[in-house]
Design goal:
CATH topology of the largest domain: Cytochrome Bc1 Complex, Chain D, domain 2
Keywords: Heme, Iron, Membrane, Metal-binding, Transmembrane, Transmembrane helix
Strand order of the largest sheet: 1-2-3
Structural class: mainly alpha
Bound molecules: heme C
Largest sheet: 3 strands, antiparallel
Radius of gyration: 22 Å
Number of domains: 2
Distance between the termini: 67 Å
Number of strands: 3
Protein name: C-type cytochrome
Organism: Chitinophaga chungangae
Number of helices: 11
Mean pLDDT: 94
Shape: globular
Oligomer: single chain
Pfam family, one: Cytochrom_C
Length: 291
């Protein structure tokens, strides 16, 4: 009798292990296929300026789009997720130092990365959130690239992004934004300039940077990093609907909410929103209040 039971449980466990292995193998193959796909896109060239006013504007964009959270303040790149299960994810060294851009990295390659989420060879960049950036106006993106090209070179070599087993399964299930190129409308043609000012329209344009975590509808959702704090509803239906402009500004500059919570920068990147100008925060506020 005991023998029979053992035989049966052994059999069931064997079948389960086999099923898990098949599932994992399927996910692995799927993710690998998506990673190795070559995209054929037409890159629309724009002129990249190099004067100091443009570079200064570009530096402001770098500081307000969260690039530094992954690429670092000196642009030399960093490992921003290091977890046995999820993987080791490093953001590239964007400078022309050792381990960074090669000397012949062209404007076309900057545009491939920012507008299409692709490397020069047409393969997708991993986890680089280009879907938040590709709608940037020609003017703003040109200034950003002008800044990226102007920073001092830093030697810093980083390992290539590598997924762990959980990272592979979550990517296979679409729970991790592994391949931004899949979420980009590659035919989209951004405008030349977007008019600045304390307006709803400008707020809508700026809110692109919030959609990766708060979702395109801005009603919040799960954190893009599995296990992280969920992103809250920031439309008028949430707390933003109750806060005055000065309260909203204080939250985005200090992470302290009127109801006494201290938001952690790792959850809500308020050190990034602290760099927004008064006008930019006002525009965002006006837009969010209408949702
Ligand atoms: C969530 C983290 C994250 C943020 C935020 C982020 N990046 Fe990246 N970026 C990455 C990763 C990861 C890679 C490397 C991807 C790879 O090698 O597959 C990358 C690659 C790049 C590349 C391409 C380098 C190459 O190999 O051709 C450029 C250019 C770049 N990022 C610029 C930016 C700029 C500018 C911003 C802000 C507007 C930004 N990134 C924001 C994670 C990020
Ligand atoms: C990297 C992900 C991420 C990005 C990008 C991001 N947020 Fe958040 N945000 C969060 C998370 C997560 C929370 C919830 C934190 C908590 O509850 O402790 C949050 C909370 C907030 C809150 C407080 C809401 C409340 O009811 O307490 C506001 C306001 C907010 N975000 C506005 C913005 C705006 C505006 C942008 C774009 C400029 C933005 N966030 C970009 C992740 C993000």
């Amino acid at each position: 009798m005991l023998r029979k039971i053992l035989k049966w449980t052994g059999g069931i466990i064997g079948v389960l292990v086999a099923l898990i292995l098949i599932f994992y193998f399927t996910m692995y193959m799927m993710v690998n296929n998506r990673k190795s796909k070559t995209y054929n896109v037409e890159v629309r060239m724009i002129d990249i300026p190099s004067d100091s006013a443009s570079v200064a504007e570009g530096a402001h964009i770098y500081a307000t789009k969260g690039c530094a959270d992954c690429h670092g303040d000196d642009l030399s790149g960093k490992i921003f997720i290091d977890d046995d299960a999820l993987g080791k994810l490093s953001a590239a060294n964007l400078t022309f130092g050792k381990g960074g851009r090669p000397g012949n990295y062209s404007d076309r390659e900057w545009l491939m990365a920012m507008r299409h989420g692709l490397k020069a060879n047409g393969k997708p960049l991993l986890v680089m959130p280009s879907y938040e950036f590709y709608k940037m106006s020609d003017h703003d993106l040109a200034n950003l690239i002008a800044y990226l090209k102007s920073v001092p070179s830093v030697d810093h070599e980083l390992p290539k992004p590598k997924l762990g087993p959980l990272g592979i399964v979550l990517s296979g299930l679409g729970k991790l934004p592994l391949i931004p190129a899949e979420k980009i409308d590659h035919q989209y043609k951004p405008g030349e300039v977007v008019k600045r000012g304390p307006t709803r329209e400008y707020g809508q344009y700026l809110s692109m940077s919030c959609t990766g975590c708060h979702q395109p509808h801005l009603k919040g959702g799960p954190n893009p990093v599995p296990g992280g704090t969920p992103a809250r509803d920031i439309t008028a239906a949430g707390n933003v609907g109750k806060w005055s402009l000065s309260q909203f500004t204080a939250v985005l500059r200090s992470g302290k909410t009127p109801d006494g919570r201290q938001l952690k920068n790792e959850d809500m990147p308020w050190k990034m929103t602290a760099n927004y100008t008064d006008e930019e925060l006002q525009a965002l506020y006006l837009y969010l209040k209408t949702l």
